[in-house]
Amino acid sequence: MDHTISLIRKSHHGDKEAREQLVKENVGLVWCVVKRFYGRGAEPEDLFQIGSIGLLKAIDKFDLSYDVQFSTYAVPMISGEIRRFLRDDGMIKVSRSLKKLSYKCGKKKEELTERMGREPTMEELATSLGTEKEELVQAMEAATEVESIYRPIHQEGDSQLSILDRLEEKSRPEEHLLNRMMLSQILDGLDKEERQLIYLRYFQEKTQAAVGEILGISQVQVSRMEKKILERMRKQM
């Protein structure tokens, strides 16, 4: 940790060699994050390059006063950079063209319905738009799917959560390793009673009342402690 902090401090003072050394020492971390996004339609090497940009941002923006491991700070920065790439430069470009055709289809459908007194068939729509029926169906279905998975379901400040972010990803050993590493570092920053509270609540799944009996405090006190601890942990994450 002291070695990494020393390199970060030098990097912040313009030492390019220190910055390059930090990148070299964290290549494995970038690849661990990249593996979370395999199968998303982008080449691993491209994802690695984007993830490396996230790593550089983490190096440049890391506050030396943070009471947190650099890797804990870097992982969400790397992951966020890759997610933005997939959203803005990956699938979303495809969806724009698909949505454009889908939009034209909607307008044409309204026009033909008014003219014909009934809804047009897919063949009639395709002919009117000068495209193949199969292509039109594919565009409409794909556009609907892409719009759906990127539809915001929660927003807090500048942070936006989409359905895609909530989709359960395949279990990967690397992701479990990263999650354990981040959790371990955060829990190390808690005092003994706080760690015990989190362990009892979220690892043994005990109620607040049961935790209160074990710790010798009231359920209300457990609730207040838990809220404060989780808030600190969220900020660190």
From TrEMBL:
Residues 46-59 form the RNA polymerase sigma-70 domain. The keyword Repeat does not apply. Keywords: DNA-binding, Sigma factor, Sporulation, Transcription, Transcription regulation. Pfam families: Sigma70_r2 (PF04542), Sigma70_r3 (PF04539), Sigma70_r4 (PF04545). Gene3D superfamilies: 1.20.120.1810, Winged helix-like DNA-binding domain superfamily/Winged helix DNA-binding domain (1.10.10.10). The keyword Transcription applies. GO terms for biological process: DNA-templated transcription initiation; sporulation resulting in formation of a cellular spore. InterPro entries: RNA_pol_sigma-70_dom (IPR014284), RNA_pol_sigma-B/F/G (IPR014322), RNA_pol_sigma-F (IPR014236), RNA_pol_sigma70 (IPR000943), RNA_pol_sigma70_r2 (IPR007627), RNA_pol_sigma70_r3 (IPR007624), RNA_pol_sigma70_r4 (IPR007630), RNA_pol_sigma_r2 (IPR013325). It comes from the Bacteria. One of its GO terms (molecular function) is sigma factor activity. PANTHER family: RNA POLYMERASE SIGMA FACTOR RPO (PTHR30603), RNA POLYMERASE SIGMA-G FACTOR (PTHR30603:SF17). NCBIfam families: PRK05572.1, SigBFG, sigma70-ECF, spore_sigF. This is RNA polymerase sigma-F factor. The gene is sigF.
